Amino acid sequence: MDIFIAIILVVSAWLYILLAGADLGAGILERFKGKTLKREQEALITDAMGPVWEANHIWIILGVVIMFVGFPKAFRDLVVFYHIPLTAMLIGIVGRGTAFTFRHYDAVKGKSQRWYSVLFSLSSIWTTLWLGILAGSITMGNIPRHGNHFVEVYIDPWFNPFSFLIGIFLCSLLAYISATYLVAEATTSEGKELFKKRAVIANIVSILLGILVFVYGYFSDIQLIREFLLHPYSMLAFAFSSSLLIFQWYAIKKKQYQYLKYLGGGQITLILLGWLIVQYPYVFRWKGGGGLMLLDTIAPEAVQLQLTIALVVGLIVILPPYLYLMHIFKIRK
Amino acid sequence: MDDLFAARSQMAISLIFHIVFACIGMVMPWFMASSYYQYLKKQDQQYLDLTKMWMKGVAIFFAVGAVSGTLISFELGLLWPEFMEKAGPIFGMPFSYEGAAFFLEAIALGIFLYGFGRVSPKIHLFSAVMVGVSGVISGIFVVSANAWMNAPAGFDYNPLTNEYTNIDPIAAMFNSAWFTQSLHMTLAAFSATSVAVLGVHALLILRNIRVDFNQKAFKIVLPFFIVSALLQPLSGDLSAKDIAKRQPEKLAAMEAHFHTEKAAPLIIGGIPNEKEERVDFAIKLPGLLSFLAFGDFNAEVKGLSDFPKDERPPVLITHIAFQIMVGVGTFLALLAMASLFYLVRKKSLFTSKLLKVFVWATPLGFIAVEAGWIVTEVGRQPWIIYKVMKTADAVTPMPGIVYSLWFFSLMYILLAVVVAWLFYRQVKVYQRS
Ligand code: HDD
Ligand code: HEM
Ligand code: HEM
After folding, report:
1. How far apart are CA A95 and CA A86, in angstroms?
2. Which residues, in sequence order, are bridge partners of residue A284?
3. pTM to 2 decimals?
4. Burial of A189: CB neighbours in 10 Å, binned 0-12, 13-18, 19+
5. Average pLDDT by stretches of 10, chain B with 433 residues
6. Chain A partners of B100 at a C-beta cutoff of 8 Å?
7. Rg for chain B (alpha carbons), in Å?
8. Are B70 and A285 in contact (CB under 8 A)?
9. For residue B365, which atom of ligand 1 is closest to its CA?
């Protein structure tokens, strides 16, 4: 049961990265939109994201609830030690969520539209950056177990080049995912051309940054990166994910855009999987060795049972309408 | 300002902000669905316009509700990690089901907002109803989580080892306060939102703007208001009786009742003086408090002086907030009765003075909602889990919450201004059309 709960937790994090990640990436892409087709880009993004927007972002709420019900001690430590990056990320979520909706629903489509767009894209970048910083600092671990100096406990773990590097890497990765997604959604050939270009650029940037992450991580002694490179399974996931790149390039060349997003999604999934393999069983690592083990913090049996029931009931209730929503807005079009 | 006070203030501001949007999110879908139903039945274009107009307004409120709610689900942990570590597994069950209800709501909302012309009218109407149903269900779940903080259940607590054992999440969810609190909150959401909507449309009618259209809107909402506003005081009485047994010090603080006595008077108005333990300038109705709390004019009601000083809630705030809520509740119930009277007599409300009263009543429901929550939350102090954990022991060890408080306060003020401005623009634009 604890494994089941942990799996659902991982799945909801994965779906958040993938689905809300595409939303985030769309906001990032907007910042780099060309002078031409500006309106079209915005309209396309609104149209593609609007119906699924709310549903996409529920995955993070589900993740939080599973954390504090199922793994209360892990939740407690995460929110205490990562208070600042989490808060920063939340501010971004507020900014982009409101800007996106205001842009679409403001009754007067005047000058204010520009401001919404600026806020939307900037806060998308901000949110992704902090999500990446969180991921980076969790990867590094390095939480002082008994520190009592403010900077040492609450700042140092995330305020470092590696975490920011991961943040930037995530920005380019999600921009790429979003471009692969939008290129298939675009209705005109100029639109397709535009997003294809974006996809290619974001792809190249991601690859370069990805290499940089590994090189930097290796030489600055980030333990997890070393383990990643030594662990056979994570390297296997990594190799698979890299080989997907070739298929993606091929799909772009052949203009088979409808497959692109699945390939891109698959690639991200494999990267996450590789990371998970080395991160397991820790939530994060303490400075000076050891770590907080997720399954050690599991709530008592009775709670696990009820949570499992709630998750299963939830899935049964949610899945059909969710698929229906996807069906009408994503597939039938 | 110390961190504890900053954290409490930040929590309060966030929730006070969120609840407005939550109420709108729970209730407006019902109005939209009713109007859409009228349109499907009568094929009168005006009802479709009305549906779409409401929908556009609501989409904005929804988004703000969703982001502020997301913020709160993190804030519970960010500000009160020690509380969430212990309480999460116990009172988390309603949150899990609430998550499912939100999900359903988000899906239904997506279908409803973007579904014109894409799905059949029946499915479309159904999605609107589902938004309302899942909104109300999620509201009930969250409130039952809050009720657990007032009436902890479903675990054994050992104060010596600070351990929580024998956890039973289902017993925690159906704690002794969940029903009265959820019922009262659901009614409050309906009466607050409907009186606000009625007020806006009444104003437009009085200004002679699209009169026919606005009258249709008014007629759709009025029944919701009448029913909920009439039931509200009854449900409030139920809550008060419940509290008299469950949290006597909260009742005493609400009533500014300092000394235990038989045939206790009901105190109306007045300014409690906590130091001297008396109430100045109040009207006292003998025996009525005993009656309201226990159904017996002679029953003994415990006063605050029976409780240790460090376990008494702040009296001034709790008392004033309670007075405001009950005052508004009584007024709204009278307004509902008057409207009912017009309806039964088949006289037109639209030419009467009552319409003006509705305009003035626009914000009252929400004021009462906020006041009611202040009663519940401040009245529970100093406990975060009643008689189990003190708020002071729950707060995050991270210093510097004050800065976070300033930042979030600023953000909420800004958001509130922008939302108000957007709302004004909506109404303005639609006046012209
Ligand atoms: C439109 C809003 C509204 C109106 C008109 C009223 N209330 Fe209320 N009240 C609320 C909105 C509200 C609330 C905001 O929804 C609360 C806060 C927590 C809760 O569950 O409901 C609440 C709480 C609340 C509590 C505390 C519950 C607890 O701590 O468990 C009591 C005793 C009452 N109410 C009693 C009344 C009475 C006697 C009213 C008579 C007229 C009344 N309320 C009108
Ligand atoms: C949305 C309506 C709500 C409003 C307006 C509201 C209002 C408040 C206020 C004014 C405080 C500060 C009390 C004080 O410290 O003096 C507070 C504290 C708090 N509330 Fe609520 N509340 C609401 C609902 C909830 C719900 C549903 C929950 C949990 C399930 C909750 C959990 C808390 C917690 C954990 C605190 C901090 C600890 C404490 O002060 O006791 N609140 N809230
Ligand atoms: C501790 C307190 C609370 C937490 C953690 C919380 C959490 C949330 C979250 C995460 C959302 C966004 C869901 C979405 O994306 O659709 C939300 C919205 C909502 N909340 Fe709250 N909430 C709290 C208090 C309340 C209270 C007291 C009520 C009502 C009684 C309420 C009712 C709603 C409703 C109906 C919505 C959906 C409508 C909308 O988005 O505007 N919430 N809340």
Report:
1. 14
2. A292
3. 0.89
4. exposed
5. 88 94 93 91 87 85 88 90 87 87 86 82 89 92 93 83 81 87 95 94 87 87 94 92 88 83 81 78 80 81 81 88 92 92 80 86 94 94 88 84 89 90 82 64
6. 310, 313-314, 317-318
7. 23
8. no
9. 1
